Amino acid sequence: MSELVSTRIRNTAGKLGLPHLAEALTQYAQRADEAKMGYLDFIDLVLSEELAVREDRRFRTGLRISKLPHHKTLDDYDFSFQPELDPRKVKDLATLSFVEAKANAALLGPPGVGKTHITVALAVAACRAGYSIYFTSLDDMVRNLKAAETTGRLTSKLGSYLRPAVLVVDEVGYQPLERAEANLVFQVISKRYEKGSIILTSNKTFSEWGQVFGDEVLATAILDRLLHHCDVISINGPSYRLKNRLAAIERDQESAA
Question: Domain AAA+ ATPase spans what residues (predicted)?
């Protein structure tokens, strides 16, 4: 490829918003020459590479604005430590059919069993598939909504929890809510009903949500909308955090012996 043609292609690629093509043109040309590619194969190579770069850029941007606490995947989860948890149920969720159907998923169990890990892994998978994600703890969401309501910005703030295709709500039940706070949660749940997915974690059974939300009627209204289309997974095994802490203590004791 002549330098003149190469320069013209780079300039055209820049104008078309294809910066990666402009940067990697020489590399593509070498690969095509070595493989003795035809014209159509070369075009397919260039377009496929450009699409892959764009998808990776979109994925990384999506993760950055998602507020996820980490980016762990299901490959990082030790299912052997939770023998009562059926991996097939989790992997069925990972197909994201519930996200496509604008349904919900709930993971219940005591602290430390890996609920947030699985939830984040599902969110990462959804982000890679092209869905927008937003992560929040229930306490943070309530605090932000209360502050917005005080300053007359509630409608705008609600939008940040209504726009994403998948809203992840972590730690439902760790702190009881006042009725006014529970009503703000109801607004989010009801407005997202059949319009976007929610993935949540809770250390409380659904029968205890009346205590969490300070009102049995309001809790029932929230559960009615949340559970109408919802996959529920309960994890009742030992704590990963306690396991890791005990292992560290044992190593320290062995070193001191």
Answer: 101-234
Helix pair angle (138-150, 179-192), 10° resolution: 100
Rounded alpha-carbon distances, angstroms, from residue 219 to 140, 169, 211, 224, 227 = 19, 16, 8, 8, 12
Q: Long-range contacts made by residues 145-152, C-beta under 8 angstroms, separation at least 24?
A: 145/184, 145/188, 146/180, 146/181, 146/184, 149/184
pLDDT tens profile 103-143: 999 999 999 899 999 999 999 999 999 999 999 999 999 99
Letter for the amino acid at 106? A
Instruction: Find tokens 């998978």 and name the residue.
Output: 125
- Please tell me the number of Cα atoms within 13 Å of 2 on its side-chain side: 3
- Phi and psi for 35 in degrees, rounded to 5? -90, 0
pLDDT at residue 244, rounded to an integer? 59
H/E element, 234: strand 230-234
